[in-house]
Amino acid sequence: MTEKNPIQPNSPDTDFINQWPMDLSEYLRFDDDDDQWPDDDPEPFVSEHVINQDNQQANELLVGDFGGIESHLEGSSSRGFISEGERKEIRDKVAFKTKSEVEILDDGFKWRKYGKKMVKNSPNPRNYYRCSVDGCQVKKRVERDVDDPSYVITTYEGTHTHPSFH
DNA sequence: CGGGTTTGACCAGCGC
DNA sequence: GCGCTGGTCAAACCCG
User: Fold this and answer.
1) What distance in Å separates the CA atoms of residue A113 and residue A131, rounded to the nearest whole number?
2) What is the pTM for the complete model shown?
3) What is the mean pLDDT of chain A?
4) Closest residue (Cα, C1') to C9
C-alpha cells in the first residue's frame, strides 16, 4: 500500500463507526447553526430503518433510530459467509433514510456531482456525488424513496480521510 | 477564471 | 453472446 490513510477501515463494521469522521449527532442537531436549512420543514431529519435489499451482498451499516446504529453483517454469498477476498472488496456502506424535501443536505462535506441516472422501478433519478477534497474518494448516492417521495435515501460509500468542515 | 453542474455516451457486471 | 441495468467519464455549459 503506497498510500497511507490516517483512517484505515481494517476493522469490521462496528469499529468503523468509532472512526466515522462525521458526527452523527450533527444530523440531529440544528440548534447551534441554522444556516444550513431553509424554513421548509419543521422536521428536516427523521431517520427510519432502512430495509436491506436482498441483492446486497456486502455488510451494510444501517442506521436505525437516533439512539443506536445497527450493524448488519450479511454474507449472502452462496456459502453464507464472506471470504477475505470478498471482504477486501467490501467498502463501508452507510445508508441514511432522511425525511427532507430537499436532497441537497449539507453534511459538513463538499460534494461534487458526477452523474445522474434513472433507475428502474423508480420514477425518481439517482444522483451520484463525490467528495471534492483531494485524496478523499468518498462517494455518495442520493435518491428519493419510491413509496415516500418526501423521503431521501442517502448512501455513503467509503471513509473520509479528513475532518468535516463543521 | 475557476470550480461545480449538466448531460449523453461509454463501460462493466450480470442474467438469460 | 446479447441485452439490460447501474455506475462513471468527460465535454460543454453555468454561475460566482
Assistant:
1) 9
2) 0.64
3) 60
4) A114
